[in-house]
Amino acid sequence: MRANVWSGRNTVHVENVPDPKILNDRDAIVRITSTAICGSDLHLYDGYVPTMKRGDILGHEFMGEVVEVGRGVGNLAVGDRVVVPFPIACGDCWACQHELYSVCENSNPNAGMAEKIFGHATAGIFGYSHLTGGYAGGQAEYARVPFADVGPIKIEDDLTDEQVLFLSDIFPTGFMGAEFCEIRGGEVIAVFGAGPVGQFAIASAVMLGAEQVIAIDHYPYRLEMARNRAGATATIDASADPDVVEQLKEMTGGRGPDAVIDAAGMEATHGHGLLNAVERVWQGTRMETDRGPALRDAIMACRPAGIVSVIGVYGGFMDKFPTGAFMNKGLTLKSGQCHAQRYLRRLYDHIRNGDIDPSFVVTHRLPLDEAPNGYETFKHKQDECMKVVLNP
Amino acid sequence: MRSPKAAITVRRSREEVQRLWGDPAYRPEYLADADATITFVDAPGDRGTEIHVELQGGTPLAKAKDDLRRFKQHVETGLIVRSDGTPEGERAERKIKQRPAQPMPEPELQQVGA
């Protein structure tokens, strides 16, 4: 089959590789009809995530048709149309039983590797380095889906691929980020990063009843989408004025937002001042792996006793974490890779009911063979790129 | 120097975990013959059973940990978890010699017993 593989820093190639086979009774094989490039794929592409290996198939956002099922998969049949959530979860361990799927205790066969870096292993993830299991990803014609009796959701409505594809990751991820904010009505929520996850965090905060949602980014076209499509009530262009903390306070009558969502993670680049100049040097030497301007600003801007919700991806260590502000303001920090399986049914119903059409983020559609161009376009935000969908 | 220790929690009752530990179908291949003290303790709440391993005589800790993880997977999920990078399931030797995360060709599939 054809597959998009990592071949070194800033390089991917579409190559012929063997077709996947059933390796365990609870596996299924899916023929992929649509797959997307995620912002977190760029961290792998850039070489910021350790334990990548040449030949790794990338991609953790995919959907398609079931073509083979193992003996232990009773809920799916050949021909079913499914969206596959990005964390691989067994459904049987304590974490899965508590709907904490992204920290499944069994699905990462490189647990020993992850323990050295994170203290504990987290769930296996498709196409996302060997630290999360060394699983082939979904930017390919076919994928093996382990624990297929737990993860995939069957799509039985007449919805297009692009309307349901983002159930695989970015829609539930954005939703979880908004849910962390404990919205009861009347809140002001700020969202750092108006990329695809940020768009869904904004849309979800609106759905959950936030009164004002402020989007922050340094690309005007992303802010425009946040306002016109996701429902942001205000925006801050950090490229025009990088002092985001002061602007947020000003926009909230000095209070600061009730909760702040970091949907930028280590991608954030808006920082200013001496601290960020120092950080650029550290990053250059790779002594610090996680850039932190969004998280620092989130903590500085959040109102006392508010919530900071981190769904943007970090992979290593960050310097200059504002411990004093975090502690003295009494903030609550919540984070995680999304427990996607927990939200699939609920968000699928939102799509079916017409509450949201997630396809609004798609700006680029390419055949799988053009994946390398897709990565470059997305990485450099060329052509107002927001989301690239690949069709094998 | 304190002797190397490892522990894991398995979501089953102590009686069942102890029984399966001795069952040939589940028996950890490495720890079974290693010079090690194994104790089973009820875990707090609804978490099942803690298995504590204390190794004597230079037994490599990494191999003991592999055994514990494989046992937990087998008991809780009914299978040994395999990926493209680690097709035999968790093994210390594989950590430093990962396959690329792409499907295996036929001869290699047979080699790893899949």
Structural description of this entry:
The complex is a heterodimer of chains A (392) and B (114). Chain A is of the alpha/beta class. Chain A is 28% helix and 20% strand. Chain A contains 13 helices and 17 strands. In chain A, helix 5 packs across helix 6 and helix 8 runs parallel beside helix 10. With 114 residues, chain B is an alpha+beta fold. Chain B contains 4 helices and 3 strands, in the order βαββααα. The radius of gyration of chain B is 15 Å and the shape is globular. Chain B starts with a strand and ends with a helix. In chain B, 36% of the residues are buried. The model of chain B has no long low-confidence stretch (mean pLDDT 92).
Spell out the blueprint of helices and strands.
The complex is a heterodimer of chains A (392) and B (114).
Chain A: E1 2-6, E2 12-16, E3 28-37, H1 39-46, E4 61-69, E5 81-84, E6 87-88, H2 94-97, H3 111-118, E7 124-125, E8 142-145, E9 153-154, H4 161-164, H5 170-179, E10 188-192, H6 196-207, E11 212-217, H7 220-230, E12 234-237, H8 244-251, E13 259-262, H9 273-285, H10 293-301, E14 307-310, H11 323-328, E15 332-335, H12 344-352, E16 364-367, H13 371-379, E17 388-391
Parallel strand pairs in A: 10-11, 10-13, 11-12, 13-14, 14-15, 16-17
Antiparallel strand pairs in A: 1-2, 3-4, 3-8, 3-17, 4-5, 5-9, 6-7
Helix pairs in contact in A: 5-6, 6-7, 8-10
Chain B: E1 5-10, H1 14-22, E2 36-42, E3 49-55, H2 61-77, H3 92-95, H4 106-111
Antiparallel strand pairs in B: 1-3, 2-3
